[in-house]
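Q: what does this look like with adenosine-5'-diphosphate bound?
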Amino acid sequence: MAGVTERQILDVLKSIKDPASGKDIVGAGMIAGLQTKDGHVAFAIEVDPKNGAKMEPLRKQAEKAVHALKGVISATVVLTAERPTQAAGGGPAPQPRHAPPGPGGAKAPVLAGVRSIIAVASGKGGVGKSTTAVNLALGLAAAGHRVGLLDADIYGPSMPRMMGISGRPTSSDGQTLDAMENYGIKVMSMGFMVDEETPMIWRGPMVQSALEQMMRDVNWGELDVMVVDMPPGTGDAQLTMAQRVPLTGAVIVSTPQDIALLDARKGLNMFRKVDVPVFGLVENMSYFTCPKCGERSEIFSHGGARREAARLGMDFLGEIPLVMEIRETSDGGHPIVVSKPASEHAKVYRAIADRVWTKIEQALAAREAATPRIVIQ
Ligand code: ADP
């Protein structure tokens, strides 16, 4: 297939001028991290952080120009700003600002056709957040809801593998990418767009921009719920995301060995800070079930999460055991909820999904009640 070349992309970008310096954006050395793969183009435009918001039209212009090239299926262009070097005092450097999508950096509008968006978050990596997100999404689908899964974990996108999807998204209308699909769920992940071997070097503002594009510029169709697998942790990138995405609620995944569950608390505080309701806590790798005899061992002083949730005023959504089958099925692209729906573990995920759905309905009803109605007589 005759794809677009780097040369062709740079040639078209040369015709675009940086409004700040008047130079063309290629000549001014503003293009970074250009990648092309089977018609999917991604790159960043480096901008001065103080020009932040003013550069959004430039980003759009560059994206449109590249998208118009023959052989380009998608163009993902993000603005990025160098983080100013650490102050001599060693305090945290100010976060570079990214052009907000709307006035004042307000939340992006709720996607047309998407009734609710929930985040699955964790205080740190490796607790099984993605495994929980994927099985929760499948549990929601098993209950008859229309579900989308957005992999916002762009540093380590795992949804293509866990959902058993390979290949690249295509566009049926020439404008937006169609979400990929498997097991009846729509999926979008940076893992579909860039090569796993050559990961992009993401900086804070790029993360946000890429995420917003995956929501906005993707044809998701009609969804009852979009499950967002958040990047692990509670840093600036996660906070911005929680702030800017119109989340209906959040689910926090934690493990019991994380004794005082300090990380889970950080997650809770992060969402509270931005007024996103926390639906509750899921304890993953809660206890160990012996695959041979079925005996249950509480290797990590199980129960800590339930107590901690109660102490923090959070609901406890359920506990998932540490079992080989869960790891093998999700790492192999056949998550347990679809590959072994009759198993005990699949039932646990479905029960969590049902609890989450009840919370979603409550949150939507509360939102509805808070919206003033205009009666036209
Ligand atoms: P995170 O998204 O928090 O980084 P992952 O979902 O990628 O974590 O899980 C990390 C590893 O642990 C994966 O190999 C996954 O299969 C495994 N894992 C997650 N939950 C369980 C579980 N309940 N039992 C066994 N293995 C699990």
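Residues 148 and 235 are 25 Å apart (CA to CA). Residues 83-106 have pLDDT under 50 and may be disordered.
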